[in-house]
Amino acid sequence: MTAWERGRRLPLVAEIPLAAAAGAGTFALAPVALEGISSGVVVALLGVVYIAAVIAIARFAGIAYAVPVAMAGMLAYDWFYLPPTHPFAFPDVANLVDLVAYLGVGVLLGELAAHAARRAESSERARREIADEQAALRRVATLVARGAPANEVFDAVAAEAGRLLDVHGIRIARYEDETELVHVAEWSKAGYNLPAYDRAKLEGTSVSAEVLRTGRAARIDNYEDIAVRAAFARGVNAKSVVGAPVVVEGRLWGVMISWSGSGPLPPDMEGRLTEFAELVATAISNTDARTGMARLASEQAALRRVATLVAKAVPTAEVFEAVTREVGLQCGADVARMERFERDHTVTAIAAWSSGGEAPLAVGKRFALEGESIAAQVLATGRPARLDTFIGTSGPIAREAQALGIRASIGCPIVVGRRTWGLIAASTRRDAPFPPNTESRIADFTELVATAVANAEARADLLASRARLLTAGDDARRRVVRDLHDGAQQSLVQVIITLRLVEHALRDDDMAVEPLIGEALDQAEQANAELRELARGILPAILAGGGLAAGVRALVSRLRLPVDVDVPRDRFPPEIEASAYFVVAEALTNVAKHADARSANVTARVDDGVLRVHVWDDGVGGARADGSGLLGLNDRVAAMGGRLEIESPPGDGTRIAATLPLQPSRTP
Predict the structure, then answer these.
(1) Residue 409 and residue 413: Cα distance in Å, rounded?
(2) φ and ψ at 510, to 5 degrees?
(3) What are φ and ψ of residue 562, in 5° steps?
(4) CA nearest to 658, candidates 602, 594, 619, 593
(5) Vertex 234, ends 233 and 239: CA angle to 5°?
(6) What's the CA gap between 303 and 296, in Å, rounded?
(7) How far apart are CA 565 and CA 410, in angstroms?
(8) Which spans are transmembrane here (predicted)?
(9) 612: burial class by Cβ within 10 Å (0-12, 13-18, 19+)?
(10) What phi and psi values does residue 103 have, to the nearest 5 degrees?
């Protein structure tokens, strides 16, 4: 369709009379042109001019007018010039009917030819549009397929869509929290530059808000009449606007907008714009997939590096620094810090990292958990936390963050043995908060830290336990040596001295031998008794002879308060019986000395190959698990592969429970 036709084409009911009038006018002008011409050359020249005029009419006015004009000219030439000629006068009725019939046929043929030409041109135009659209889509798809950066793809989509759809401007934007529109890409024709924006609230009337509300394409054809506009639409000289949703993996990601500053956009604009919006969605999905794979690979590599450090049992300070650095890098943070909770409701920074290489966060400094902070939230809830702004917050940690220009922070707890040991926090100086689910990317690192801390504490406890066991063994040996020296050893020395006197008496035939022999015998018996008593102090003889039940009853018999005993008479391995006996002995000794109890209870039972020993009392409670006696018991039980539990709330008695495997696995 020509430019003249696009602007001048009339409805069919108007075009047919005009075409007939053009033919009639041509017929009426013929006698004026032919009157008085007798030269055939002049007529031929007029014929050439006439043919050129018909061609011009067909080119600029359309074939619907050219055919009637051509037929009217030929009819006039035959009517007025070729014999028999007609007079230059208005035709009679019969001739007028012939003339109208000729002109009617001309108009009909012209309209049929015009309709066929228009259909052919429309089909060709549609074919070209489809070809152009497919070419544009292929160009963009090629960018998507070769993994071009997302911003390059978005700019290309906007430009291709704008040129192909023949609009004045294209915008691509992303929804954020269903309250804001964030700029992604745009394109506009020369002279139709759009006002710049980074993000703006979704307020007033806009296609973007309507697409967000309905999830479908939307249009506004009277945009110049809208008074209340969002910030991203102010200053836009638009008359018609169409928006199509960008849907990524089933969720509404953003919107693609086309606009015209001259008039309404075509009726099929929604469908054509949606095809480009789908390309944007594909690009986003591919980019997200590539980014997700790269991020996953990076996270796994970082986790392997930290796990290797943990497995090598390197110093915990080195592990802390490595984890803090990896968390900062993986989260795209500006700074990161690891902190440990203290018993006095404070938190200590134990490792720090920054993207610039400096260490602006205080390490080794304690902060009170006052005001708003990630640390306070994590300690209170035991769950991940985030602060999207420190504006208006108070407290020492908030003041430090404000001084360092930190805008937002996230953090995850480090849980060791069911207690919140500390946290890892990442912070940014950018205005935008961390993306959703960033906290979950830190969780794996906190588990590795918890493992490293637990391992370090276990190693420290093991070393302390070994030291205590060695000290206790040395003390026991020294006590045995002292008791032997002060008791049985002295008696045996006296026996030796007496026997030497007997030897001298026998050599001298002294009659006083018999009393000396008797004295030596008495001294030997005393030494034997002292050795037996010493052995009883190390391990009661009744335990070796009667087992755990007999040993516990012997202990209970020496107490002045009632004790219920429920201990099986079964025999157990000697080391198990000894450990269980000492647990009961220490517990009942504490009851007698400190508990101020009225009664106690001792039970033992075998359950799934484990001997479980419980001692209760109804005393004042408050027993300390780190006391020398109970600490030694814990070491003994742990050395047997068992576990000792102590519950002693003030005012509510004490419960001591020991679990001893009947086939113990000794700690090396």
Answers:
(1) 14
(2) -75, 135
(3) -70, 135
(4) 602
(5) 65
(6) 10
(7) 55
(8) 12-30, 36-56, 63-80
(9) middle
(10) -65, -35
Q: Is the pTM of this model over 0.70?
A: no
* 309-317: long-range contacts, CB 8 A cutoff, minimum separation 24: 309/452, 310/448, 310/451, 310/452, 310/455, 313/455, 313/459, 316/452, 316/453, 316/456, 317/350, 317/351
Q: Is 558 exposed, middle or buried (0-12, 13-18, 19+ CB in 10 A)?
A: exposed
> 381: which 2 tokens?
């809830």
Q: Which residue has the higher pLDDT, 145 or 538?
A: 145
Between the alpha carbon of residue 58 and those of residues 77, 96, 270, 362, the distances in Å are 20, 26, 35, 86
pLDDT bracket for residue 566 (50, 70, 90): very high
C-alpha dist (Å) from residue 401 to 362, 369, 373, 405: 11, 14, 9, 6
Q: Output the pLDDT for position 244.
A: 93
563-566 vs 600-607, strand pairing mode: parallel
CA-to-CA dists, residue 660 to 117, 250, 605, 610, 640, angstroms: 101, 57, 11, 6, 7
**Cβ atoms within 10 Å, residue 552:** 26
Q: 331-369 burial, b for 16+ CB within 10 Å, e for fewer?
A: bebbbbbbbbbeeeebbbbbbbbbeeeeeebebeeebeb
Do 612 and 637 touch, CB atoms closer than 8 A? no
Residue 38's pLDDT band, with cuts at 50, 70 and 90, is low
**Biggest CA pair distance of the chain:** 199
Q: SS3 of 431, please?
A: coil
Q: Which residue has the tokens 């035709």?
A: 91
The residue written with tokens 């940690």 in the block is 397
Instruction: Give kind and range of the element (H or E) at residue 403.
Output: helix 396-403
- pLDDT tens across 125-140, in order? 666 666 666 676 677 6
φ/ψ (deg, to 5) at 260 = -125, 140
If one compares 532 and 337, the residue with the highest pLDDT of the two is 337
- According to DSSP, residue 87 is labeled P
Q: Is the pLDDT of residue 656 over 50?
A: yes
Please provide the DSSP assignment of 272-323 as one string. Answer: HHHHHHHHHHHHHHHHHHHHHHHHHHHHHHHHHHHHHHHHTT--HHHHHHHH
| Mean pLDDT for the chain overall | 76
Q: What's the DSSP call for residue 196?
A: P
> What is the predicted pLDDT for the residue at 615?
94
* Euclidean distance between the first and the last CA atom of the chain, given in angstroms as a whole number: 95
What whole-number distance in Å separates Cα of residue 311 and Cα of residue 298?
20
Cis peptide before 84 (omega within 30 of 0): yes
User: 163: closest CA among 133, 207, 196?
Assistant: 133
What tens digit of pLDDT does each residue of 200-247 get? 888 888 889 899 999 999 999 888 787 777 777 776 778 889 999 998
